[in-house]
Amino acid sequence: MDRAVSRIDFRALAGKKVYLDDTPVRAMVDSAYLTSLIRQHLMASGGILKEKREEADYVVEVRAGAIGTDR
User: Fold this and answer.
1) Which among 59, 55, 42 is positioned nearest to 8, based on CA atoms?
2) What are residue 61's DSSP bridge partners?
3) pLDDT tens digits for 11-66?
4) From the centroid of its chain, how far is CA 59?
5) Counting Cβ atoms within 10 Å, is residue 51 exposed (0-12), middle (13-18) or buried (19+)?
6) Are 28 and 64 in contact (CB under 8 A)?
7) Radius of gyration for the alpha carbons in the chain, expressed in angstroms and rounded
8) What letters, b where the CB count within 10 A reaches 16 and e where it falls short, cover 5-24?
9) Is the Cα torsion angle 35, 38, 41, 45 positive or negative in sign?
10) Which of 3, 27, 54, 68 is deepest in the core (most CB within 10 A)?
11) Percent helix, strand and coil across the chain, each rounded to 5?
């Protein structure tokens, strides 16, 4: 997961207010870790994370075909 998320280019969201919607993956194994990774990467890329959808200019929806721990 770390490698995959680090390859996402969020530079277009630098300085923008962003809401991270993790609803589609919440029931999946290790989804909390994936959400945390994406949240950190968004902030490191300059995105301004908002806790409420209505406060954001952009919504990033987290989706995955499969996630889990190898070991």
Assistant:
1) 42
2) 21
3) 999 999 999 999 999 888 889 999 999 999 999 999 999 999 999 999 999 998 77
4) 10
5) exposed
6) yes
7) 12
8) beeeebeebeeeebbbebee
9) negative
10) 68
11) 40, 15, 45
